[in-house]
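ok so for the tutorial part 2 we go from a plain amino acid sequence to predicted structure tokens. step 1 is just haveing the sequence, like this:
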Amino acid sequence: MPQIDAESTCYLFNECLTEIKQWSDEHPGHVPIIIMIEIKDTDFFNTATYLPITPWQAEDYDGLDAEIRSVFPEEQLITPDKVRGNFATLNEAILTAGWPTLAETRGKVMFTNCNCTNPVPDKHRLDYAIGHENLEGRVLFPNSAAGNPDSAVIHLEEPEVSEEEIKRLVALGYFIRTRADANTHEAVANDTTRRDAAFSSGSQYIATDFPEPSVTASPDYFVQIPGGTPARCNPINSPDWCRPEDIENPAHLTH
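step 2 — the prediction. this is what the tokens look like for a chain of 255 residues:
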């Protein structure tokens, strides 16, 4: 967020990407790393008079894709082109053939685009497709709705409300991002209802602001994969024989 995140982990976007790439190169056996890009070009704090925020334009995405590719080579990226393959649309590909296997995607990264806070519905998703109507040559998987031609990644952020819908979509082959907590509410109250629903739903990507306990919230609230492993077998669509160490075993990351 322009007014408050300017001095967060990395000052420049490509500095963050470079850190991720270095770790990935050192641990090539890792499960795919999912990086969510959220374009925030809204003036939340009415500071435009002294800190103008330039609205994101469709052509800005070309620069975003180019910057990602300046750090990650094509062979290290999971892209819409690679998932779509010879199918007519990305949606048809994931519903028919599914995603590439874990063996095919170890050591790679995948970028998704979240347009959650955009005041104009779907603007960023639609702008990203201008000139790339089938996401040809694009890097990011947009947050879309089930059934859209570009739909493979879907954000359903309230798992306690959408748990059954998430389970249904995961079973169909969609990649779902949900949230275990938001705006510190669950963490301050030590309310694990949302977190537990997120894990039960089978969502592949569960976001949290509290991977560890925080002194500013309840000391008992944090979010980790059940069992403390880096990743787990999906409760909705994994085979019965799957064990967490089959997904990612820290001892084998460099093999």
